[in-house]
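This section describes the prediction task in plain terms. A model, or a person checking by hand, is given the sequence of a single protein chain and must write out its three-dimensional structure as a string of tokens. No templates, partner chains or ligands are provided. The sample shown here is typical of the held-out split.
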Amino acid sequence: MLKISRMAVHFVDKKSNILELASGEQNLQQLNPAVIEFILKLITEVWNAHESGNVNSGFFSSTKSQAAKNSIENIKNSHDDFFSETVTLARRLYASTPNTASSGLLAIVRCLSYDSDAHVALLKIQKENESFVRLRENELTQITVEDIKNLLQDKIQKGAIIPHPNKRNYDLKTIDKQGEKGVQAKYFTEGFLGCVTKKSDEHQIKSLIPTIKKFGTKKNLSIVNSKIPELMCNLDKQNKNVTTPTLERVIRETGIFKEEFNRNEFITHIDEESRIGKLDIPHQLLTKKKTTDRKMKITFNHPKYRNVEIRGPFKVLQELMETEGDSIKITIEGTEDIFKFEMM
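The expected answer:
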């Protein structure tokens, strides 16, 4: 069970040129348990969130400012300057926020995990009532359960947990529920935190084959389409996360390209030039989507079969396919009672 160790809450409203800083660190003993329960619920939501389009893993960038990282580290270690470091972060978020961004509460929390490891949770929380703009300690200690329902939405705008609660090889986990694009989407992660986020697992899985084909086109390589199902099976057989070097090796072993290709050029294309980003796909998600088998769709370039689609569980379709050289044969055979025909 997560436990809040220390906390400070500030208010950021760049659109109205308002930065309301708390007068001091929250006195947790005097705080209404409903407030603590509310904050813990939001932290747990980020903690347990499945990686998807708005939930990502990330690293602190070595080429960007280390100011946020240093402040977060001091907060995590519960230094005497805990509160002043939260003020530094609030000012940094305010400076990084575009004028069009919505306002919200910035909760900066040092929490202890199930195994007593210290983490820092940064939550930008949407507020419901415009009157709730000053966050002084004596006000928060008087908040009731009804106040929480009236003043705050049970919704995180943006958030981060440092270090990453589920993946030891990442610095942090981020969430962004506002669905913004461009500068709006990057100001919290890149501008405020100075971090680079990994593309979501789902994005990387769905973009894998198109990205490989794009590299082939770019380098004038002939791709063997019949080998693609075999490639996915061979990646699955690795029984470990799919990284860029692993993908390069398995592509070479499977013979996806008819011609030889440069290993470093391929890795650079995936990691730096493509929209897929540096690969780190969990093995268990490669052929499964949550609890069900991942599906595959087969379409045809030939004019006669252009409107024909075959789709279904990846492993089932792979069993129906036979390949010989450049030829692919798909066979579904059975008695008439296994087929169903409808006019559309």
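For orientation: The longest strand covers residues 3-13.
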